[in-house]
Amino acid sequence: MKHFSKAISFVLALCLVLSVSADAMAKTWNLCNGDITIDFDDDSNQQVTQGSTTEKDDDIIIVTEDASGNVAETANTIKVESGEGETAKFTIQNVDINSSSLDGAIDIINGSTVIMTVSGENYIDNVSISGGAGAGIHVGNAELTIVGDKNSGADNVLNVNTRGDNGYTDNKAAGIGSNDNEDFVGVINIKDVDIESHVADEYAGAASIGSGVGGDFKGNVNITDNANVFADNGNGGAGIGSGENGEFAGNLYIKDSVVIANVYENGAAIGSGSGGNFTGNIDIINSDVTADAHKNGAAIGAGKYGDFDGKMNIENSNVTAQAGYTGGSHGNVGWGGNAAAIGAGCYGDFNGEISIKDSEVTATSFNRGAAIGAGGNGGEKRDTQFTGTLNIDNSTVNANFVSGSANKGIPIGAPENAGSSLFTGEIKILGDSEVNLLASNNEKNGDYPLIGSNCKGSTGTIYIEDTAKINAWQGELDKDILSPDDKNSFKEAAQSGGEFVNIEPEKISDIAGGAEVTIKHVPKPEPVVQISDAVVFEVDTFWKNVEAIIRIAEKGDEIIVDADFRSIMPTYILDLVRRHEVTLVIKWKGGEAIVISPDHGIDYMFDSICFETLIALLDE
Prior knowledge:
Blueprint: H1 2-24, E1 28-30, E2 36-40, E3 46-50, E4 53-56, E5 60-63, E6 78-80, E7 88-93, E8 96-99, E9 106-108, E10 113-119, E11 121-128, E12 137-139, E13 143-148, E14 157-164, E15 176-177, E16 187-191, E17 194-199, E18 209-210, E19 220-224, E20 228-235, E21 240-241, E22 251-255, E23 258-265, E24 270-271, E25 281-285, E26 288-293, E27 300-301, E28 311-315, E29 318-323, E30 342-343, E31 353-357, E32 360-366, E33 370-373, E34 385-386, E35 389-393, E36 396-403, E37 410-413, E38 422-423, E39 426-430, E40 434-441, E41 451-452, E42 461-465, E43 469-475, H2 489-495, E44 501-503, E45 512-513, E46 518-522, E47 529-532, E48 535-537, H3 539-552, E49 558-564, E50 568-570, H4 572-580, E51 583-588, E52 591-596, E53 608-610, H5 611-619
Helix pairs in contact: 3-4
């Protein structure tokens, strides 16, 4: 009897296991059979609706197949909605969607949180047939995570395309992002997947990834975990960022990934669209980024008419940025391009902050813009200015300005245009950095600076640390210009007519224009100081941290720091306190706290000052 009971128990257990396994198997939904809606029931169970069928399903796989099981094209769409505290999850597996939906081929409803797994090779087109259509994947005010299927055994690729039916009928929605006249305020996470996003219309104006025409980019795009992203655009909108007439006010975070972005005209490859300012943040960490903007928009920064007012941080990365190259021979190279490669668009000011650390950056501008800094004026009498900050720390930066005419660009700073372009900001070249500056055009040479600006009234400051190296070359390139696709081509071309010359820090004024530009010699960092076995610190790191705090403080703030046993302060801290209108209180073990107010009135000729001298000057 016991043996019989055990046998029955075993059979029941086996049936239970088989039953659970069958229920747990993912169901495949064929989008060719009709539109699919994914949402949740009243008990927060994920469910799928197709036609008259609604079923609970936690592991949704969507395909597009014909009767023989082959991949087929369909015009049907996917709509996904989740409520508060719910996350919708589904997989697209070798789908081919070619729709003309006003809501988007895949529509993520506002307020939803969605994880979409990409398996195999997938194509999503949303085509405007009668002058309007939604995004390829619509994300306005939602959070979408796109992740590759680790178990697919193949490359996981997502191709997204928004266009008109004949290539010119406008589709004003993003490839991945918001629709026409809709802000992008959501979150797009791209992880461990290959994505190609295209806005194919020549006059569309939407971003490939970001916002549609007239929409601001206020949300967050995070590209991480070995993702490969290619974003391509025709005119007006950014490759990644905002659409035409949209501000870039959000955040783009790139880490451990490869990103390539191209724009043909007026928008930035990465940043704001034409007519939009850049006020947000870009972080590029441990990644390879290549950006190319052909006409009037920065490769990374602001589109045409756009100021660069935000922040960009490049760390441990390789970045290549090129703006204004339209092809052709050396004689007409650069016509049509007037933006900075990294910075402001055509007619735009550089008022923000760029930090380059432990990286290699190659920036090349053609025609009138700076390689890094302010935009050119496009032939009109408009001033453009460099009032912001560029920090280069322990990095290699190749800054190239090239023109086929007598246009007056500049490698780093504010280019001289028909107006008066001023440099009143700060450039810091620190650590073991190597900065290669090249300026060349075909008709007039030798009159333009390589860093700063040669316009009167330029009162900016250039800091050069002892350990940094600056190489400079100015003149006419060889007629047989090398391909700009090679980031070292201009340096090599220049060397065919003359070598780069190392510029000693004290000689930097020879290549920095502007009679009032200040060149400050920065000594090597102070050595590590050991006060006791337990206290070891680096003096220069401390003051760099103080500098960072001052820069993010608000007007009127009081900042209190503990300098411990330090007794010397860099004098540029005095300038920062005055310009940012804050009060700095320095506690130190050598005496009473030192209070430096924004109206301290101290002008000091040396690069550093001891606390005792500082106290005496404050008491006067």
